[in-house]
Amino acid sequence: MKIEILPSLLAADYAKLADEILRAANAGADAMHIDIMDPHFVPNLSFGPDIVALCKRIAPNLYRNTHLMMSRPDLYIEKFAAAGAETLQIHYEADCDIHSCLRAIKALGVKAALTINPETPVEVLRPYLKEADEFLVMTVHPGYGGQKFISECLSKVTWLREKLPQIDIMVDGGVNGQTAIDSARAGANQLVSGSFLFKQDDMKAQIASMRANLEELI
Ligand code: DX5
Ligand code: ZN
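Above: the input record for the complex with D-xylitol-5-phosphate. Below: its predicted structure, written as tokens.
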């Protein structure tokens, strides 16, 4: 499976957002992970569709992976698709009909991913295994960057990988050089990393070294 490394824009320096988007693109990132939060779903607020559109304008070739930490993602998927989101990740814990929301995302020509929080058992995903294009296992409680990786979540990645050998499985939260290796060993092939990557002086060298370490494992 192809290993993909996705810097999370949440950890960028907002005083120079356009430069930070370009820094990730020029560092060889496989995609930009764009964290959208509403304060009903998490105890924080972040970006809206305009930031997705900004990423598209600044780095049109950098894939836009858009993580909707929202109670009602179903009400916003059209806006995010129109802004340029290429994958939309909704949460199992959201307040909407998950089957119809996944179908509606796909009908917009966007990839549909399903996400679970650390406290949610992975078995809840069983009815969606054939329906979602990919899965995201949160390895921190959503809401903030810079938290500690919750290793106990990795057994969920392994559960998914055993059932879905060909599907992209992502981890998000607390990913650094070591927890990236732990995640890939568990079966993840897409790794979101925010604070660890954006604090690097040389993001390109760090992504290259992560990629080299991870490709040996897969
Ligand atoms: C958490 C977000 C993550 C976060 C990751 O709510 O979904 O994408 O930005 O940041 P780090 O890598 O700093 O944990
Ligand atoms: Zn995220």
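Notes for the reader.
The first strand starts at residue 4 and ends at 7.
The pocket of zinc ion (ligand 2) is lined by residues 8, 33, 35, 67, 172, 192 (CB under 6 Å).
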